[in-house]
Each structure stands twice: as C-alpha cells, then as structure tokens.
Amino acid sequence: MRSRRLYAITKTLLSYGLDDLIPAKWLPWSLRLGRHALFWLPNRHKDKSPGVRLRLALESLGPVWVKFGQMLSTRRDLLPPDIALELAYLQDRVAPFDGQAAQAIIEKSLGLKHISDLFEDFNTQPLASASIAQVHTGKLRVADGDVKDIVVKVIRPDIRRTIDADLELMETLASVMARHLPDGRRLKPKEVVREYRKTLLDELDLLREAANAIQLKRNFEDSKLLYIPTVYSDYSRNNVMVMERIDGIPVSDVEVLKARGVDMKKLAERGVEVFFTQVFRDSFFHADMHPGNIFVAKDDPLNPRYIGIDFGIVGTLNREDKRYLAENFLAFFNRDYRKVAELHVDSGWVPRHTNIEEFESAIRTVCEPIFEKPLAEISFGHVLVNLFNTARRFEMEVQPQLVLLQKTLLYIEGLGRQLYPELDLWKTAKPFLERWMNEQLGWRAVVRSVKENAPYWAEKLPELPNLLYESLHAQQHVQRQLELQHQRQLLQQRQASTSSFWSLLTASGVISTTWLATANIAPGWPITSAVITVILGAQAWRSRPHVINR
Question: Any residues with CB less than 8 A from the CB of 7 and at least 6 apart, and which?
Fold first, then answer.
C-alpha cells in the first residue's frame, strides 16, 4: 500500500513538472539520475504556469497535501506572487464532489426520507469546497416553526482511505528521517507526524468540530473582536454539521474591504489580539486560520469584527507551556535575549549544557535587525532560515505540542501582511502580553484565585473540624508506629550484638579444638574443647536476631 502510494505521489509530481521548480544544482546526483530513469513520466502540463501546476498537483494528491498548500498560500513573502495566488485557491475552491451525493449523505445521516422533511430549501450546488468537506446552503425549519438561513458541511465520501494511505507514507518517511538525518532526533519527525495524524483525523469528525465551535463561541460571547456562528448540534453528526449562515466579506478581499471603508489598521491589530486572547486567556485557539476561514462583518467598518468558520483544528496549551511562551514573547519584545536563552534552557527546549552567552548572541544576531520595522520591510523567509540554522547549531528540539501554534502564528503574520503591511507586530502584541502576565503574577492573580476557589472552600468549611480530628488521630497513630519501630530496631541491634559475641567465641573454640586435635597431647583436651565449642555455638544460634512482628 505504501509503495503504491509513493509511486502515485511521484507520478503526480513529475506529471505536473514540479521537479522543474527545483534548480538542478540543488538536487543530489542520485535524485537527478532517478528522474532520468523515470523517463515514462514526462511533464504533461507544460502549457500551464508553475503556480497552476503546483495547485493542480496538490489537489490531485488529496487533503494532506492541500493542507500543506493552504499554509504555503499565506506566506507570500516566501513564494513568487503567481504561485502564492494560485495556492490561495486551495483555501475554499477545491474541486467539489457531486451535490446529489452530498444530499444523499445528509438524508442518511439525519434519518430523513427526503431533504425537504427538515429543510425548507437546500441547494445542491456547493457554496464552497475544501480539501476534506464542502458546504451547501439552505433554510432550516427549527422547533418553533421559524426558518433559519444555514449552511450544511458534508465530509467527502471515502476520504478516510486516502488520508490513511498518505499518513502511513508520512510515518515511514519520518522514521527514515529520524534514523538517518543528522537533525533527525532534534526535529522529532515521528512525533510531529503523530501530532499531525491526530489533528487531521480529528478534523474528519464534525461532532468534534461542532463542540469546538460551541466552546469558541462561549469564549467570545458578546465580543467586539470575533463572532462565531451558531451550530445546530441537534442536526449534526460525525459527517454532517448544520450551522448558521454568516454574511461577511472574505478577509482576503482586501480591495473590497478598503472600498467599504474598513479601518485596515484596526482590523490587523484586532487579528493579533484575537490570536493572543485565544492562546493566553483561553488556552484554546482556532488552529486553521487561513484566509478561507476568516471573514469580516459588514455592520461597522470603523470597528471591524472578525467572523470565524471551520473549527476542525483547534489547539490547546498546558499552563507550563503557556507561561514559558508568554515570558519568551515578552523577553523577545523587550530585546532581553539573555532571558530568551535562559528560558529555552529552563523549559528543556535546548540541552542543559548550552552555553548561554553564545546562545544569547546567536538569537540577537537573528532578531535584532527586524525590530522597529513594519511587516512590509521584514524578510521573514530570511529570518526563518537563520532561526532554523540557529536551532540546529544549539540542538534545539522541535516541540510537537507547539507545531499547531507555530502554524497559526504563520497564518496570523501572513494575514497581517495582506491587510496592513505597515503593522508593527511587536508594539501591538506587547501590551496584551504584559497585561496577561500581570494578571497571572500580580495581586490580580491572587484575587482571581480567591474568587475562583471561594465556593469550593465554602463547601469544605463545615468538614474542617472532622478533617482536623482525623488528621490529629492519624498523626498520633503514626507517632506510635514510629516509636514501636524504633524499639524494634533497638532490640534487634542488641540481639545482633549478643549474637556477634557468642559467634566470635564459637569461632575461637573451633580454632582451639582444631589445634588441640593436631597437637601431640592427651586426647581429653580436644574432646573437652569440642564440647565447649558446641555449647558456645548453640548459644550463638539461640541469640541470633529475629524478625519482630507487632
């Protein structure tokens, strides 16, 4: 299965001429020889541009590869403009599957004889189509007789088979990388692929996505930053989800946003604030925030609010990782590179033997040139290459639990670059992080902890006398046991001392008896010595230490 899929991937890449996108001088001789050996797989799309060929190849390979293309599409600083533009189509314009098949899936999953049993209207023509699912519009009759404008998300049929094949191949390649690459252990490819497998398979479960949407909506209830559509969970299943239809402008339509008078600076700043709020306040963040999943509400252009969709991938952070991240960000914003280096060592992200001074200098060399510059003047491609080289030099290990966060941060940075290139990312994020750290460490944290725990303390307060009595009683029992144990140890020590004394006399008797028996003297003396030695041995045996159980 893996070899067949590997051949299918190789055939697709070569058939679309993607090997032409890599300069020959970058390829080792073995790969160049292998390409000539596969002479029956020529480039069949020479008439198309490189961007179109790359997009079509990724679409052909399936959802795992489309997701990769979606992430690349947000990094216009790393790609030629024509390729970035074509990859943007992967966000919501993947070739759809048959609308009648989607209707049949909905009817079967919801137990309907016909789609009209539940929906006032249903459009078999998909509104949008992505790598894993597609969306149809309709009107839902709810319990009170009202009719709601909705969208229905339907998982592509038989997609699990393709995903499993690609994931198996990725796991094989990750094992090879971990075993043979010099950086294999540090990069943790197997752990990263394992995390990606979990993330991708979670995205196939629309009940999980519905729960994620409900959680995000609760986190941003009445927020001016982000709106999450209502999910009709009663009509949602593993492969079908019904959700409120929103009316917004795709965040990628920058010209339309500007034409409507949207405050682009505030929109970009609020995007940064939404990200840091999700990560540090809620520890629960939308981890698939590419432009195809983000819209802007039309109601108030001067105070723009984001609308989020597609909640199949979310990330969480534990308290320790969140604390280290916040401290790293603040130290970075304050240009305290020694603090950044020390935090990396304390968190275990780099080995303990790392030279702090050298690590600090390396971080300063990479980061200092990008401060006090707007996004438009920062070459993040150059920065990423330098950071990767620094990480390799200091044996920095990839943290699989942070991969989703890193991907989301790339999306946010790419989004800010499109919306408002003059955005000062550092000045926008720093006040939020400082406020969050003060809330975690200052007097506010103490007050919040008291407020959060007060109900629990009030519940346990009546039990305190009994708990105190039981604790004191248990302490007395423990003290008695310790005293008995001490007495047993003293007794055993005395027994051991007495036994050692008689054993020493017995050994002396054995030596004396042996000497007398070999000497030329009257036989009565050896016999007498032997009798005495036996008596001494018996006494030593009786006085040996015994295990005392009480």
Answer: none
Question: Is 233 known as a binding-site position?
Answer: no
Write out the two tokens for 60: 């052909």
Tokens at 312, concatenated:
């199949």
**If residue 48 lies in a helix (H) or strand (E), which one and from where to where?**
none
> Which pTM does this prediction carry?
0.67
Q: How far is the C-alpha of 370 from the C-alpha of 380, rounded, in Å?
A: 9
**Helix-then-strand count for the chain, H and E:** 21, 11
143 is an annotated ligand-binding site residue: no
Residue 128 labeled ligand binder: yes
* Amino acid identity for residue 534 in this structure: V
Q: Is 471 within any annotated ligand binding site?
A: no
- Asked if 82 is an active-site residue, the reply is no
Q: Give the relative orientation of helices 464-518 and 524-542 as an angle to the nearest 10 degrees.
A: 170
Host H or E run for residue 177 = helix 159-180
pLDDT by 10s per residue, the chain, length 550: 566 777 777 788 778 877 666 655 555 555 556 655 665 667 777 778 888 888 888 888 877 777 777 766 655 555 677 787 787 777 666 778 899 999 999 999 999 999 999 999 999 999 988 778 899 999 999 877 789 999 999 998 888 887 887 788 777 777 766 776 555 565 567 776 777 777 778 888 999 999 999 999 999 998 999 999 999 999 999 999 999 999 999 998 999 999 999 999 999 889 888 988 888 888 898 988 878 889 999 989 999 999 999 898 888 888 777 777 778 777 877 788 888 888 888 877 778 888 888 888 888 887 777 766 666 666 554 565 566 567 667 777 656 556 677 777 777 777 777 888 887 776 777 787 777 777 766 566 566 666 766 776 677 677 777 777 777 777 877 888 888 888 888 877 777 777 777 788 788 877 877 777 777 677 777 777 777 888 877 877 777 766 555 5
Catalytic residue among 19, 77, 166, 288: 288
Residues 6+ apart with CB under 8 A from 366: 383, 386, 387, 390
Phi, psi of 498 (to 5 degrees): -65, -45
| Contact residues for 231 (Cβ-Cβ < 8 A; gap 6+) | 210, 213, 214, 217, 241, 242, 243, 244
Q: Do strands 306-308 and 226-227 pair parallel, antiparallel, or not at all (unpaired)?
A: parallel
Q: Kindly give the interhelix angle for 63-73 and 81-88, rounded to the nearest 10 degrees.
A: 130
Map tokens 């929906």 to a residue: 119
